Amino acid sequence: MKAMNRTISLLGVAALLLANVSAMAETGLYTGIGIGGAKIEADIQTDIQFFDDTNQPIGGPVKVDFDEYGPAFKIFAGYRIWDWLGVEGGWAYLGEPDGSTSTPDQSSRIKTDYELKGWNADVVGFWRFNEQWEAFAKVGVFIWEDDIDVNDRVITSGSQVGPPGISADPSRWESDESGEDIKGGLGLHYLHDDNLALRGEFEYFDVDGTDGVWLLSFSALWRFVE
């Protein structure tokens, strides 16, 4: 009889725990929009070449050491399968930061524009540590497109036609590529109420041809809690 009573007590405690977990669980659809800033690092090898007055090349083709920031935004939607696990997809515009690189004699600079955007699909894990805050981590794939434009020489010394020994008008170099690479992210949710949440997030995109792409963003989410 004691064993039966103990079993009934344990079942009762388990039922209470399950009921509590069920009450806390928040599954269902959510959508959001975010703004932030992105940083793109890349070593861009162009075919732009400078020549001296005897038509001999000066150095090799211009290589752009690109390390710039730009504004970014994204839209996304997700579904929490369980309270601790969900899936998420969206579109991110990682900006069009611009920079410049020096000519071989350091007398002028060439402008570079780097535009990057794409779609993402992630698996997201959530950890709720109190009623209003939860952390999350994600990993997924980023299907991207870039547009790199190296042009517009700006002379910083010498005459308007170019300093002696350097060609005055380098040719324009462009690149349009696409691909699929991995991405990941970490962040926090502030749960304002049952439906509205605010998100702060840091993401890394392992885009082919770059040394790394980072995005820091802040978003507002609307949750359709079941």
Question: How is the secondary structure organized here?
Answer:
Layout: H1 2-24, E1 28-45, E2 50-51, E3 57-58, E4 63-82, E5 85-93, E6 98-102, E7 108-128, E8 133-155, E9 173-191, E10 196-205, E11 212-225
Antiparallel strand pairs: 1-4, 1-11, 2-3, 4-5, 5-7, 6-7, 7-8, 8-9, 9-10, 10-11
Explain this structure.
- By secondary structure, the protein is mainly beta.
- Helices cover about 10% and strands about 65% of the residues.
- It has one helix at about 1-25; strands spanning about 30-45, 50, 55-60, 65-80, 85-95, 100, 110-130, 135-155, 175-190, 195-205, 210-225.
- The protein has an eight-stranded antiparallel β-barrel. Strands 2-3 form a two-stranded antiparallel sheet.
- Strand 10 and strand 11 form a beta hairpin.
- It starts with a helix and ends with a strand.
**Structural class based on helices, strands and sheet pairing:** mainly beta
Specify Rg, calculated over alpha carbons.
Answer: 26 Å
H/I helix tally: 1
Spans of at least 5 consecutive residues whose pLDDT stays below 50 are 10-25, 155-169
| Amino-to-carboxy terminus distance | 41 Å
Largest sheet: 8 strands, antiparallel, barrel
Shape: elongated
Summary tags:
eight-stranded antiparallel barrel, two-stranded antiparallel sheet, 1 helix, mainly beta, 226 residues
Short note summarizing the structure:
The chain has 226 residues and is mainly β.
